[in-house]
Amino acid sequence: MSVEINSIKSHKVRSIPSGEVTELASFWQDQDVVIIFFRRWGCMLCRLWAKEISEIAPILKKHNIRLIGVGVESANTKEFLENKYFDGELYHVEDISTYQTLGFKRFNVISIITSLFWKQSREAISKGKGMGLGGDLKGDWVQTGGALLVEKGGKVLRHFIQTGPGDHLPNQEILKHFNLEKEYNEETMANRDRENLTCNTEAKP
User: CA 54, CA 1: separation in Å to the nearest integer?
Assistant: First the structure.
């Protein structure tokens, strides 16, 4: 699925913590942007993705590329902010239709639990637990997310849709879309092999 950027440009998001409301189009009006659409602020796997992508935040900033995280709700943002999981701007959507328009699917109770036993989820859970990220079940825990990489002016470079809660767009691929792959650092935490970590599925999605 490829999103038509005009279908979401007027959708509104609210800044965290200021509460200021803006349209999505303002994100790519004057510069390139990476937008991560998180599942839940209390989701350990979302916190993991936030920590991983924050490792390339200095590169993005150096090249005048905005890094923005968006959630489905304002609930449970305090801990996310206080623990500084994400080195970028934070917002939440005014209406869940933004996620629907972007094709981000919703699980049901059975499918979300099943997805936690997928290989990618088990590896991500193990890594998140090893980093002490924690998690809870507050908020909308059956929603999935994804990412949008957009050039200044509105050209979509990549529309990424999560297949499951542990499915994250790799840093290397993000940088490649902005022709910055040469600045990719293979030694960062985000690139540690998840398979080399002990898997443990006892975590909250």
Answer: 26
